[in-house]
Amino acid sequence: MLYLFYPGYVPVLGLLYRNYSASKEIFNEWKKLSKGEEFADEFLKVDYLVPPFPNECWVYTSKERNYGKGYFVFIGPNVDKSINRAITSGIKQEELLLTTVSRYQWMDEMNGSYNRDMFKSLTVNKTGYYLMPIGIKNENKPIKEENLIIDFSYAIKMKNVTFKNGDQIKGNDFCKIVLRNPENNA
User: Fold this and answer.
1) Quick one: pLDDT at residue 132?
2) According to the lineage, what is the superkingdom (predicted)?
3) pLDDT digits 0-9 by tens, 122-152
């Protein structure tokens, strides 16, 4: 994840990709679905799961997850909108089978949560942000601006982002999966 903030412009949530050509294909498809000009929230959803997490959550005992000092970003389909589109097109809810693919990323907060908090403050009024792929030119070099591929032609517009405390996630929330240890999900 990478945040870009420029005064006077909407914020950017960048997804870092090692395989930049694959990311361009994904974002081109999303641009087609959003018709290039509309917000992609009709089919895509971005959720932040932030501390505190439930006391028994696996991240608190995981060195790889900085013992819970961090947060998850969950990107997946906008299930509610998908169900509404299906019902509107004539599919009965009891006959609906919905399969989804989502992705989540853990973000360490070794130096505090300034960037996340800034992104939240800039998006809370729902004026929008861009979601876009960011390529890495050379994986052996540090993640610095000169080592990144930043191309706004692949950016998609988003309006909504939610921030949820991990200990407040309830039963049917798709984000709940990140609170379960992935080693126990097999």
Assistant:
1) 96
2) Bacteria
3) 998 878 999 999 999 999 999 899 999 999 9
Query: What's the rounded Cα separation, in Å, for the pair 78 and 157?
Result: 15
Q: Name the domain count of the chain.
A: 1
Count of beta carbons in the 10 Å neighbourhood of residue 161:
21
| Burial class for 36, CB neighbours closer than 10 Å (0-12, 13-18, 19+) | exposed
pLDDT of residue 164: 94
Cis geometry, peptide bond prior to residue 54 (ω within 30 degrees of 0): no
* Predicted pLDDT of residue 8: 85
Residue 36 within a domain: yes
Q: Which structural domain range is residue 13 located in?
A: 2-179
pLDDT digits (tens, 9 = 90+) for 80-101: 887 887 888 888 888 878 777 7
Q: Which tokens sit at 59? A: 């991240």
